[in-house]
Fold this sequence. Notes:
The protein has helices at residues 20-24, 33-40, 54-68, 93-101, 118-131, 157-160, 212-216, 226-248, 265-275, 286-289, 296-306, and strands spanning 4-12, 16-19, 44-47, 78-82, 108-112, 138-144, 166-174, 182-189, 197-198, 223-224, 257-260, 315-322, 326-333. By secondary structure, the chain is of the alpha/beta class. The site of acetyl coenzyme *A has 23 residues, from α2, α6 and α8.
Amino acid sequence: MRQTRILGVGMYLPEREVTNQELEAIKELETSDEWIRQRTGILSRRFVSEGESGTDLAVHASREAIDNAGLSPDDIDFVIYATLSPDYFFPGNGCFLQDRLFADRTIGAMDVRNQCSGFIYSLAMADSLIKSGQYERILIVGSEIHSTALNFTFSGRDLSVLFGDGAGAVVVGPAPNGHPGILASALHSEGKYAKELWTEYPASAHHPRISHESLDQGRHYPQMNGRMVFKHAITRMVEVSHQVLAEAGKAVAEVDLLLPHQANMRINQMVASQLGIPEEKVVNTIAWTGNTTAATIPICMHEALKQGKLKENDLVLLTAFGAGFTWAASLLHW
Length: 334
Ligand code: ACO
């Protein structure tokens, strides 16, 4: 059976940088640069400007990934778009991206709704589609706009300081002869914790989907049990990393690079330490991106390439945890 390899990587962050000091200046938020820095490792994040959509960010990141793979949009035959912040309730963002990048070709486009694990879920799916021979070149993009859904008052401060907007993308295709590509992926979920990190409104489960009352109560903003998410994130990211290593018959010591989801610097430090992976083998971007959910891992890949840390054949471990709860890992040769 043929193997799947990442052929190109792209990313895009909106121009507007929002520093912790800027958030500190919002009186109702009652936060500080010191708190955000110490508890999360975040110094700044990017927010979109009026009129800029998730699809806009995805177009930039996708173009770079396709270009970086030495391909043109005509070479792509399927799109997987991971996001928790679609431009509209429906249709999915894959369709909007298809129109912007592949308007003259009716290639398939689907959305994956798996929050922070969305990129690894998408990669695992693309891997199967390539291995089965159904497609030759798949574009995977993770793109998020959080800034328009954050509550910048005291009751939302635990979440509003964490998130940023951005997009990351990769192109995958068959690995050349003998290149092992993606070795193993593992995907998990535990829906009993769905409401520990979620956005309740608008919702088809409610009649009507949104009301003046729900808006007044701020129930259209995300809600999170931070401490619980924190603990589960560390346990599950470590556990699923061991799972893919065991499935691929590899030892932790063989890992050249860990590219973890970017939710909190302290989570990543504890995951790396519990796995026994030294700091110099980990790439983090959270200091200047915040949490960009489905976009974090391809953004990390882009940064690793930029820093010269990602080399041909390196053994790379990806792991993520997020709302759902969902968590996942993938082990691959670069
Ligand atoms: N500024 C100042 N103080 C704050 C802020 C803030 N922005 N937010 C919370 N605090 C206060 C709390 O009110 C609390 O005060 P108290 O001691 O007087 O009660 C104190 O800080 C400590 O609060 P904790 O929640 O215990 O702080 P903790 O160290 O756990 O950090 C954080 C909170 C950063 C949210 C952490 O729990 C975390 O990172 N959780 C995981 C987030 C995550 O991984 N999300 C998943 C991805 S998102 C997705 O999938 C959509």
